[in-house]
Amino acid sequence: MVGRAGELRRLRGLVGSVDAQVAMIAGEPGVGKSRLVQELLADLPAGGRALVGQADPGTLGRPFELLLDALDSCRPEDGAGAELLREISDPALGAPERLRLALAAVEQADPAVVIFEDLHWADAESVALFERLGDLPGGRLLVGTYRPGEVDRRNPLADLFGRLERRYPVTYLRLERLSLDDTSALLTAMTGRPPTYRSAVTLHHRTGGNPFFLEELLKAAGPLEDVDLDKLSGEPLPWNLADALRRQLDELDPGQERVIEAAAVLGRKVPFDLLAAVTTLDEDELISVLRELVRRGMLVEIGDDEFGFRHALAREAIADQLLGRQRRRLHELAYECLVAGGSPDLALVAHHACGAGRYDDMVAAARRGVKEYLAKGSAYQALQLAELGLSEVPEDGELIAGAARAAWLAGLLDDANRYGKRRLRAAETAEEGSAALRLLVRIKWETGMVEHMAELTERLVATVDELPDGCEKARAMAAVAQSYMLRDYCTETVDWADRAIAAADLLGEPGVRLAAQVEKGSAQSSGSVNQEEGRQLLYRTADEAERIGEWLSAARALNNLLSNAPPARVEDQRRVLERMRTAAQRAGFEALAVASYFEHSAQQALIDGDLPAAIAAVEEGRRRDQGTLRTSRGTDYHGMLRAGLALEAGELDVARAIVTRYEEAFPYRKRKKRSLSTPGLFFHVACRSGDLVAAEEYLAEMVDIASQSRVWGDLAHDLISAGLAAKLPAPALRPLIGRLVARPESWRWLLDAQLDEADGSPDRALADYVRVTEAAELPKPVLGTAHVGAARVLLAAGRAAEARQHVARAAELLARWGGWRVAALDELRAGGAAPVLDALTPRELEVARLVAAGLTNAELARRLFISPRTAAVHVSNILSKLEISSRTEVARLLRPGSSDN
């Protein structure tokens, strides 16, 4: 269920309880209460029976209507059961007697789940019955659904909640409208393809995230597989949906109708003062009308003195029934009020200027608004405003440039590319051409078109010579430096960055200088020379950029710091990551605020040895990443990292599916600049699957690629570990580390140790394994594998006692890991490298079991009637005899299924 998985899990957890359980599900119409109930019923255990009653408007006068409706579909055939139902319906019997008979009917049916839907419409007798059902023998789940907006003081349901809580355990579930990500997921599920970002945003705003409205819009558009979501975003409402929404006006008086019609035209968020000015109502009168409209659920208070509709569809339906002259008059009044009051909301000013037909004023507001929205990080809003202006002046260079930058920041790369090209074609000066080229170079990088990026960079280099000394020339130099940095040309990056820094200093342009410093520091921190200098430069740049509000430079500096030279401690990395996310959000840079944020979160969990947390971070990133199509290429930004983690966890099918899908979209053999990533993942899958023929084919390709490009330590370790697991010979794997980038140096020690061990040189292997473990610079799971390697060599040499020490340390490092690394550890433990519990006395074994259960020394003392000091002595002796260093390892040794148990 889209957006409802957590609620469904909670409901399922209540089924089968020994005692009666009550769940109350609240939510507005169409939010998915009935669908949630249906999913619960579809998953009932075999033989589980359910009674489902549905209340309808107008049933308040028919006693026990919900029960009678529930029993109607399973009416007893025998005479006694039929007689019981007749008696329940007999108005001649007193209410207490009929309640007793109703309870007897439910007990006779013996359901596991009783569901009363739309309790806000239920009669008083049905509400009383629902309250008493928990008193029947046997545990059952009672589920009630209701609309909070329909429950007033006169409603029988109003007093039920307090009484229920006094009698039974009650679980409250409030279903909220779908988020943008959930709306995208529902659109994907219904149509079979992800929507574009624009379609998802538009449909989310139109429906307010109400799944019923969304489904109705889609159904009205024809066969789901043929629906054009981009077109649907602007289609008129289906008549049945529009009619249902307009029906809300039927009971309004003229004053209320006047306010609701004005609000429908004035926009999504309507300031109180603007509404008062347009409707000419005084403050007290308008407050009275708004209170009633809010009570009816037609409007909601969005913020301080701001009101809006629950759903844009309702606003749309009401506005559509107005005459064109009415709408223009309201827009004109709103525009004049906003301008007279000096409103800072330029998007609202432009919207009403457009609605009033004042197009010159609309364009002027759009130009100012694009700059302001970009400055405060509202990239998508800036894009919408730029496009509103371009609808009137399609060749306006300033608006085209604003649209290009806004689309890039928002991650809408196809749009950014289109507007960037338009800006380049329309450029009338060298400065305008340079600005367009700068952005296009970056866009080509992010869309993976590195060849085009290189060509545009050469054009930009040539343009630099044509530019007069000034800010644009300095910016162009910084952009050239960035292009070289992204393509790993460190020397060229530093040269161009220094030129840009010198020019910026002469001009007094700190923003340009900081941008150039990001490129220089990134290049230095990614190389083996001047790495610490580059690291410190990135820190200084981020600090200064945050201080003066250059948020894009701050975000990029911190992001590249995490990628190239992260702090040693995970806690410090997390602080830097949160700084990066904040800066990226303030800049409106989607790529860093979302995609990079979750990638770094996963990397930090990986370093800390927490595989489930790493997978969870990547999955959340992929959910956000794949929810909408921001580019026609449809790339899966986090897919390769997720595939790597799947291989760590032994999820071969998951890894195979991801890399196969990625390879179908972007065949790596057709790329001009190939990397080891894709063939490496295929190689890893083949090795772990035992497919040696495929593994050898991929290995040959990888050796060819590795001879022409740098190989990073973590990737080389993954590849060599997989190859050795598949029994490939060490000499065949050794060429993979010919151009190894070993930062820290312990990566090379680990790789040499692995290959030397496989190649029959245990002494050299042991020395390097020990060097790795003593340096402790690598991620926890990798260090755990180094300890396992050392233990394996020691055990083969008959040095079991020393091997156990490494096994104990590996167990600590791999406590939150899994997959092949833990399997290698367990294999050693089963082979005799685990500490021997037989060394413990009976009393020590008893203490060890309590330690494994999590007891502290003070708790041990109380449990065993000994002093805390004696308890501490016992624990110390246990750790010493088992040759381990922590209480965590005691728990691991004594876990169920341990070979030493």
Automatic annotation (TrEMBL):
Segments forming domain HTH luxR-type: 833-898
Domain of life according to the entry: Bacteria
One protein family per Pfam: AAA_16
Cellular component GO terms, alphabetical: cytoplasm
Keywords assigned by UniProt, alphabetized: ATP-binding, Nucleotide-binding
Residues passing through the membrane, by range: none
Example GO molecular function: adenylate cyclase activity
GO biological process: regulation of DNA-templated transcription
PANTHER family noted in UniProt: TESTICULAR SOLUBLE ADENYLYL CYCLASE, TRANSCRIPTIONAL ACTIVATOR DOMAIN
Protein name listed in UniProt: LuxR family transcriptional regulator
Protein species of origin: Virgisporangium aliadipatigenens
